[in-house]
Amino acid sequence: MSLPLRAPGPLAFVDALASQTAAAPEPPAAPLLHLIAFQLDREEYGVPVSSVREVSRVAEITRVPQAPEHIRGVMNLRGRILPVLELRTRLGHPPLVAPGPKARVVVAEVHGRVLGLLVDAVAQVLKIPSDRVVPPPDDARSIEADYLTGVARLDGRLIILLDLERMLQAGPVPHA
Amino acid sequence: MDRDHAFAELIHEYIAECLPLAEGVTEALLEIERQWRDGHRDAGELGALKGRLHTLKGNSAMMGLRPMQAVAHALEDLCARLVADPVARSDEAAALLIEGGGLLSDLIRAARESDDGTAAEVYVARVRAAVDAHPASPEPALRLERRRTERRTPSDAGGTIRVDFRQLDTLLEIFGEAMIEQSGLPDVHRRLRAILGQCDELAEFDRVIGSVSATMKRLEGALMQTRLLPISTVFGRYARMVRDVARDQRKPVRMVTEGGDTLLDKTILDRLGEPLVHLLTNAVVHGLELEADRRRLGKLAEGTLTLRASTVADRAVVIVADDGRGLDTARIHTKALALGMDVRSDAADDLHQLIFVPGFSTADQVTELAGRGVGLDAAAAAIHALGGSIEVRSVAGEGTAFVLSLPLTLAIVRSLIVEVDNERFAVPLSHVAETSRVRTAAMHEVGGRGVLMWRGSAVSVADGGTLLGTTARPGPRDYCVVLFAGARQRGLLVDRLIGHQDVVVKGLDPALGRPHLVSGTTILGDGRVACILDAAGVVAREAA
After folding, report:
1. In this complex, is the C-beta atom of B509 within 8 Å of any C-beta atom belonging to chain A?
2. 3-state SS assignment for residue A45
3. Full-model pTM
4. How far is CA B399 from CA A11, A16, B331, B422, in A?
5. Which of B22, B165, B326, B342 has the largest count of CB atoms under 10 Å?
6. For B199, which DSSP code?
7. What local confidence, expressed as pLDDT, does residue B43 receive?
8. Is B129 within 8 Å of B81 (Cβ atoms)?
9. Going by C-beta distance under 8 Å and a sequence separation of 6 or more, which residues neighbour residue B128?
């Protein structure tokens, strides 16, 4: 939960709470990619921390009649209406009827557009040296390939880097 | 104590309070600069700094320290600008921010000795130049900021008239209806194009739709501005109420209000009253300890209640905080389990939010012991209905803070809420001709389609579930809502009529495409989102 910082005073304890969650270790000299890693089925994906506003629990998602494919619906995010993208189907995974208990909504912002990405689980924040990233393999499923920037190998894990910008700009498929 | 001495005391307090605050701001700004240099040019903490700058500005104004007030104000404007406009986030802008933070600290440190405003004047002029250098972006947050500053000098132009607020409400209602009607135009355009194909007249029509929509936006802005009032108009009422409750409870309470010049729509202010009264009363009765207990705990005998308002981007944040005993996390956990709730996380912060769940705070005495009384769910529902949100933050032994985030303005449409296959939809009442219980006698089938006799004419009837895609198989429905748009009508079969409600209209995000059946969304009292049906789309669609 992101809340505004407050002036010291009777609410100092709220500031203290907020600062506990905001750890900021010093980055080393080598260029690092800061990623938020999440899972869809057994695959791990990553998006840049810089384009993620927050990671939210899944509130009730309201379906919108005639919404484009891959849009699961809209969610109340502290009084704002957040469109939620069904990332599973967008990336070629089979759909789920209901999100599981570990599911989260990754709230992404690209060029002022804010969109929630429904994911199975959020793993962690990763720092990956940029030289570990290789172009996506040729056999990547074509449905995904458009939205990949590369693949990173980290301690035996394979993390697929998503091109959020392209994904959000691709925009809705107009309803027939 | 003579007056000079009293003033010296006040200045002393001012420096003691504001210097750490200003230094904290500079620290945060340095961190932002570092992030920007690393290539993360997001707004980060900038928006959050506004609260602190606002306090600095307010405290300086109270002491008549104009240079500090002006610098804090300039920093606020610059932050708002940078929050709203990513393009403006340059290294120069970061440097200008940090310079301002430093200047503010220097001025505050020297408040006793000097009130020379030259440095402040120069700085403010530079900020103004920087803010004006970029053409205004169409970001609503910034426009609201401008409006706020303009409103600070109400008496410089001639002519103020008194208007009955109900007239402004009527204007807003009509505007809301116009917005919904206007949202049907692109659909008309689409259908015409299907018939006529591309032609110059249609291109012209499209252009007109665009400019009408832009004009409506401006009209909305101007209309909303007439409805804004400072929150201080209601703060006074709460101060008196808190004093009465405190006397009743025999608890000494000091009430602190901040950010009284925060502007909010009058309707929001009016509807905020009840939940705020509830939260404040609860804070005194259940949050604050008895005087004797406070002394034993080494706390100040007098409890502090804080009511603070501020504007963060395009939202108003209102905080109701007490320095009392805090919520009893263990009791909340036990009770949640006893009620068979789905407790997914035992983190204190997550558990605390359960107190808003309907039924949680009404069942028995436990919540009272846990630090809060009954009816918090009602307060939360009232906030949700305004398009707002509420969260609680609490630390045992230190206090509890309720954080309310509210929209600054509203567009309201009176609607009928209906339910189809457990999904809820809002139908604007201005487009509802009639609602009735479905009697099989009145329903006919003509050529495979349902037809209802309504005022002597046959109206085609659509199953709500099939039309809105809630189900693949239409089941028997109990109610029929006859919608009309223009000269056309259509019956919509639904399961339940929930009731009439003023809903706050939220636009459709472009990511949702252009659904013809839906003109917008709204947040219902339980916090869930519901779609607002577009009557024109419903009546125009051929039977599904």
Report:
1. yes
2. strand
3. 0.52
4. 8, 13, 16, 40
5. B22
6. -
7. 79
8. no
9. B74
Task: Report, in angstroms and rounded to the nearest whole number, the Rg of chain A calculated over CA atoms.
Answer: 18
In tens, the pLDDT along A128-151 reads 888 888 887 766 555 566 778 888
Q: Both tokens of residue B2?
A: 């003579």
The yes-or-no verdict on residue A35 having pLDDT over 50 is: yes
Same domain membership, residue B329 and residue B262: yes
Comparing CB atoms, the residue among B21, B323, B528 nearest residue A76 is B528
The string of DSSP letters for B397-452 reads: TTEEEEEEEEES---EEEEEEEEETTEEEEEEGGGEEEEEE--GGGEEEETTEEEE
All residues of chain B having their beta carbon less than 8 Å from the beta carbon of residue A117 are none
Alpha-carbon distances of B446 from A102, B443, B452, B487, rounded to whole Å: 50, 10, 10, 21
Place of tokens 């009209």: B219
**Cross-chain residue pair B531–A81, CB shorter than 8 Å:** no
Amino acid at the residue A24:
A
CA distance B143 to B120: 25
Q: B488-494 and B496-504 as β-strands: parallel, antiparallel, unpaired?
A: unpaired
β-bridge mates for residue B487, sequence order? none
Q: Per the structure block, which two tokens stand in for B470?
A: 């809630």
Q: Which CATH architecture has domain A28-169?
A: Beta Barrel (2.40)
One-letter amino acid at B283 equals: A
Tell whether B536 and B493 lie within a shared domain. yes
A171: its two tokens: 């925009």
Interatomic CA distance for residues B441 and B292, integer angstroms: 73
- The pLDDT tens digits for B104-131 are 988 998 888 777 788 888 898 888 888 8
